[in-house]
Amino acid sequence: MAASSSPSPSLGPLLALVEADMAAVNRLIVERMHSPVALIPQLAAHLVAAGGKRLRPLLTLASAALCGYQGTRHQGLAACVEFIHTATLLHDDVVDESLLRRGQDSANALFGNKASVLVGDFLFSRAFELMVADGDLRVLAILSRASAVIAEGEVLQLQIQNDLSTTEAAYLEVITSKTAVLFEAAAQVGAIVAGRPEPEVQAVARYGMALGTAFQLVDDALDYSAAQETLGKTVGDDFREGKVTLPVILAYARGDDAERTFWRRTIEDLEQTDDDLGTAQGLLRQHGALADTIAAADRMRAQAEVALAPFADGPVKAALIEAVAFAVARGY
Amino acid sequence: MAASSSPSPSLGPLLALVEADMAAVNRLIVERMHSPVALIPQLAAHLVAAGGKRLRPLLTLASAALCGYQGTRHQGLAACVEFIHTATLLHDDVVDESLLRRGQDSANALFGNKASVLVGDFLFSRAFELMVADGDLRVLAILSRASAVIAEGEVLQLQIQNDLSTTEAAYLEVITSKTAVLFEAAAQVGAIVAGRPEPEVQAVARYGMALGTAFQLVDDALDYSAAQETLGKTVGDDFREGKVTLPVILAYARGDDAERTFWRRTIEDLEQTDDDLGTAQGLLRQHGALADTIAAADRMRAQAEVALAPFADGPVKAALIEAVAFAVARGY
Predict the structure, then answer these.
(1) What's the sign of the alpha-carbon dihedral A123, A125, A128, A133?
(2) Where is B104: in which H helix or E strand?
(3) Which of B125, B137, B156 best tests the A interface by mutation, with the highest count of A CBs <10 A?
(4) Which end of chain B has a smaller Cβ tally under 10 Å, C or N?
(5) Do A121 and B38 touch (CB under 8 A)?
(6) CATH number at residue B95
(7) What's the pTM?
(8) Tens digits of per-residue pLDDT, B195-209?
(9) How many CB pairs under 8 A join A and B?
(10) Can you give the residue range of the structural domain that contains B165?
(11) Which residues of chain A neighbour B94 with C-beta distances below 8 Å?
(12) B123 lies in a domain?
């Protein structure tokens, strides 16, 4: 979004620092999606072409760079992290019945739910095969735990869907589990392959957790505020599905009786007319719910910066700090 | 089906030999399905209550017993194998839109497709967490490869669905991948924890592969021939979904033009009336398609028996030979 020449924070510096590694990761992703079963590479090619920010593998590469790692193991593990993420995206789109993903028709819209479920399973299994080939039980423990927590977070999200009594704490648990834990694991893995002592592994883990939480908070704000073309998914998806995200929790808490009736009808009963998304957007702005969601993300940005304190200043650390500023700035 | 007092082959002797181990596995399955997210143990309790034959964990336990293993690692790994299987069942039912599983309402019918996809992901991740806790990279390699092959087999099955030009070879590849590979892996793992030399590990792997193939062949025959109450799933599911299984491949190959028109309408175009399942069953019997499918399973039974030749005769070996005879006898 922000041009690299502007003063707005960007992912550019971080991407530049790990450019060669990321090219290797992209090659690995294509190679390792291969299967003799034609539908798998077909669907995979669609996903690869759709691209996406590859934030999670970027985090593994950047964390390894921050820790002075010189080998190539981080490339394979970054590909694993992206496979786990892609598998969860495929299953999310089935669960959410989304028609757009990364600005293109979603895989389930093009290939059907059945293929999305099964190719998701394949990518997830392939991720584990690749981790096993890497052979580090500590890495395996971190990524298998992260996968289980992601699934728990997704189920929890399903449980609280359409429930306006959801607390901010329950919402935070959902986004921590479904999103931030994989950022945390992605960052941890980079420090582990570099053989860093535990306090540094924990420091990058905290950075990853804070970045992931900020990222999801901003995503949940953008679902109401973004322009369709910049979001890369359908604006208002969360609203149409009755997802109870922080903006809605805040607006509901701050609304009068008539507004609460509106939220109950649209979010709990899913009775929506064409005008309702616009009305919801108006209420969110009126009550400062989007601004406060971004403010919560900005507090995470500050935590992420603090987490990196144990590391000496340098270009990678500066780029990591800019990356989390970028994640938050997307929301404005 | 066969009472233990009848001369029909049964799983009874094998179950009796590993009874204490299986009780431990059942406890582990319940324990390790636990999650603070309420919907997960709820759905899990439904699956556990539905029971099922637990054939795959039984195979891990029996293989370890055949190899003289004295420890308890096989119990945890047997639970992992069952978790992988349960995860694939949950996703299968979503893919197949099945309403019955193990004689009860399927999880997706009761809890919805979303919960089935996500709880399947959870069980799959939990299986990997438990394997990682066991800490044997060779076991991890076998089970992660098996998981990837299962997913490939399921996608291949989706590809050939409604396609009457499917060859017997393609069909065999599907059932080998989607079913037999997990039987193979389950058996292998038992020999590996027992620390047996490679030829014995490969021997139990061949046994598991042959048993799994026989099991699926018979399942595909039973889908047309079983009584509803003994099958534990909906009779005619494969037909209604247009699955091209061996009975259909054989009847189509042996049918006249009118019959082929019938198969194309029902299997390829999925235009079916209430009488069509009965007509299909009649054609399968008339052409010996069910009998020949069972005969193919019986050849697998013979291969399974040969595979066990390296092992000394004894009660476990005899019970394993009877188990594969049982798997085939279900079909008569």
Answers:
(1) negative
(2) strand B104-105
(3) B125
(4) N
(5) no
(6) 1.10.600.10
(7) 0.91
(8) 999 999 999 999 999
(9) 138
(10) 19-317
(11) 94, 113-114, 117
(12) yes
